Amino acid sequence: MQSLLGDHIRWVRSLSHDPIDNLAFERWALEEDVDERPLFYCYINRPSIVIGRNQQLFAEVNVPFCDEQGIQICRRVSGGGTVYHDLGNLNIGLVMPKSLKLVNDYHFFLDWPRQALQRHGLDTVLNTRNAILCQGKKISGSAQFAGRNKLLTHCTLLVDSNLNHLEESISSPLVTHSKALSSVRSEVVNLKSFGLSMESVIELLMAELQAMFTTVGHEEVVAKKLQSHRQLLQSWDWVYGRSPKASIIYNGQQYTVSKGRLVDHDTLQGLAFDHFLRGDLSAE
């Protein structure tokens, strides 16, 4: 890794648990950050669901359960599958120059956390779906996005996450037919099961970076730089409107939804499907 990235890297640990803040930081780092030095970062979100850039939200998310539990629904800039975040889930990433030609090379990034855990005595492997497994169970999923000049690769690490909420929140109760990418479910486990805490995992990751690079420069997130990215990422058009066209069966009725809105329906034409769904549930 050092042979390609050089001797000097940057490290950012977000102090915010707001998923929009942290997703906005990733988008800013991709689109506006002019520093060419590689940027490693980590953040921890409050309970939230984060779906991939082009996924069909209603096929992936249990919207009623998320509403009931106060779990925020978000969409990220990268592809890949749907993930559940909470205060027991560590998110780590790397933004680097696209000129390094590492698009689709997940191993380059994922070997860092995998090796850090391996050195601690855990049996970790990287599978063919770019997930890190520990003793055969998934502890990390990853995704990537190539911007104009920068490449983002990021992943989750399950440390002490609520696995019941994870399972329930990403199990949509709707029968949905769409051409959108569907998530692949795997058996998961928390690193807490192997004696690790959130702080100890972060310390292991930092120790690995410090062993690889001459200088690890610590930086802070500048909140005012994120405003325009926050506005986009929390907008209805981004979270719901990006969902590809789908045929959805709800309460025995079939609905066609395009860009998050009902189509081909005499009385509900143009209504946002999430508004219809939530309104119907609240009336029951």
Structure description:
The protein is an alpha+beta fold and 284 residues long. It has 2 domains: 2-239, BirA Bifunctional Protein, domain 2 (2-Layer Sandwich), CATH 3.30.930.10; 246-283, no CATH class. Helices cover 30% and strands 27% of the residues. The chain contains 10 helices and 16 strands. It has helices at residues 2-5, 19-31, 57-60, 63-69, 106-119, 163-169, 198-212, 227-233, 236-239, 273-283; strands at residues 8-13, 39-43, 48-51, 72-75, 83-85, 89-97, 124-126, 132-134, 137-140, 142-146, 150-158, 175-178, 215-219, 246-250, 253-258, 261-263. The strands form 4 sheets. Strands 10-11-6-2-1-13 form a 6-stranded mixed sheet, with helices on both faces. Strands 12-14-15-16 form a 4-stranded antiparallel sheet, with no helix packed on it. A hairpin with a 2-residue loop joins β14 and β15 (253-258). The chain is globular. The termini are far apart.
Properties at a glance:
single chain; 284 residues; alpha+beta; BirA Bifunctional Protein, domain 2; 16 strands; 27% strand
